[in-house]
Amino acid sequence: MILLPDENWRWVFDEQRQSLLLDLSDDMQFVVSVPPKQLAQKQAFTEHFSLDDSSLYFHFLECLGEFPFTDPERVQIVLNAVAAVKYTRPLVSQSWYYRDVDMLSGEPELGEVFSVVTEFTYGDVMIISPGSNASLCIVISQAIQLDADKSLRQSSVCKLMNSKLLPYQAATQYLSKMA
């Protein structure tokens, strides 16, 4: 079941837990996966889930429509994406982990899904804030192994140079050449 935003939803930063939460009702809260070090604001606040938030929520849900996620997984990724767009501070690209595929002509679109390739694996990301040279992304794969010791889990937020983004439709052909 897909959750539908309503006027009671509120973003809350819990100083004690150092966590951003989405208060969905009196007895249900969603803990956002964005780590405190990536948040722009780290003091207590409460803010309504806005119309812009709802618009992003439904746009991202639509963009993930063709992917084989369960409804809870889809909602989790999308809520984390909306929170990241709204509350993350500017991130530095860590593109050195990813192979340069240089297959993108132009700027990626909001919600567009791309594959990325590292020395260890490949995975999929969704654009949550497009840029002309680099874009803010959310990991939609279960995980992306960056090196022997570091990986990004699903719903992790990262900034990538656009030259690292492999159009999703071209990924199968590109990856078969690597094998």
What does this structure look like?
The chain is of the alpha+beta class. It has 2 domains: 10-87, no CATH class; 95-178, no CATH class. It is built from 3 helices and 11 strands; from the N terminus they run E-E-E-E-H-H-E-E-E-E-E-E-E-H. The strands form 3 sheets. A 5-stranded antiparallel sheet has the order 10-7-6-5-11, with helices on one face. Helix 1 crosses helix 2 (71-87). The longest helix has 17 residues, at 71-87. The protein is globular. The termini are far apart. The model has no long low-confidence stretch (mean pLDDT 93). Contributes to the efficiency of the cell division process by stabilizing the polymeric form of the cell division protein FtsZ. Acts by promoting interactions between FtsZ protofilaments and suppressing the GTPase activity of FtsZ. Its main location: cytoplasm.
Topology:
Layout: E1 10-14, E2 19-25, E3 28-31, E4 45-48, H1 51-63, H2 71-87, E5 113-117, E6 122-129, E7 134-139, E8 143-145, E9 151-153, E10 157-161, E11 166-167, H3 171-178
Antiparallel strand pairs: 1-2, 1-4, 2-3, 5-6, 5-11, 6-7, 7-10, 8-9
Helix pairs in contact: 1-2
Family: Belongs to the ZapC family.
GO biological process, one term: division septum assembly
Keywords: Cell cycle, Cell division, Cytoplasm, Septation
How many strand units? 11
Overall average pLDDT: 93
Radius of gyration based on Cα positions: 16 Å
**Order of strands side by side in the largest beta sheet?**
10-7-6-5-11
Please outline the major beta sheet.
5 strands, antiparallel
Distance between the termini: 38 Å
Helix percentage:
10-25%
The secondary structure category is alpha+beta
SSE sequence, one letter per element: EEEEHHEEEEEEEH
Provide the number of structural domains: 2
**Global shape:** globular
Strand content: 25-35%
Unreliable parts? none
Q: DSSP helix count?
A: 3
